[in-house]
Amino acid sequence: MKYKCLRQGLAYNGPPENSDPKDSYLIPRNIMAEPDYIEDDNPELIRPQKLINPVKTSRNHQDLHRELLMNQKRGLAPQNKPELQKVMEKRKRDQVIKQKEEEAQKKKSDLEIELLKRQQKLEQLELEKQKLQEEQENAPEFVKVKGNLRRTGQEVTQAQES
Predict the structure, then answer these.
(1) Tens of each residue's pLDDT in the chain, 162 residues
(2) Per the domain annotation, does 28 fall within a domain?
(3) Which domain holds residue 20?
(4) Is 18 helix (H, G, I), strand (E, B) or coil?
């Protein structure tokens, strides 16, 4: 009797003073059938257990939930960050990315370093050639003629010597 009352959420005040077996219909009873696993008579029955939610048990979820609760208590909304704080966080992220790229460049092999040096030298030579061509194209006509005369004069002297 005591167990049934507690299970149904009723307070148990002891047996009724005038407890007759005939008055047992006055005792409030649960309309639903009682499950078999409540009684400890049969140890072979498998008792149901609450399923575990893997999302809620994950550490990341718990940390995020805790942080959200703390922010809610303080009155801070996660999306309402000041603009200055957003800018500072973006700068910090960019700085971290830049540091990682620099570390990756430092870890380059000797072959890669040598290839980069050769590539830079070739680029410098190409730039110098372009500058010379632009200077020759932009030079006045008499300078071009003078250069041609010098070349032909040198060719003539070399031909006479040989």
Answers:
(1) 445 554 555 555 555 555 555 555 555 556 777 766 566 667 777 778 888 888 888 899 899 899 888 888 887 666 677 788 888 999 999 999 999 988 887 787 888 889 999 999 999 999 999 998 888 787 788 787 888 888 888 888 888 887
(2) yes
(3) 1-75
(4) coil
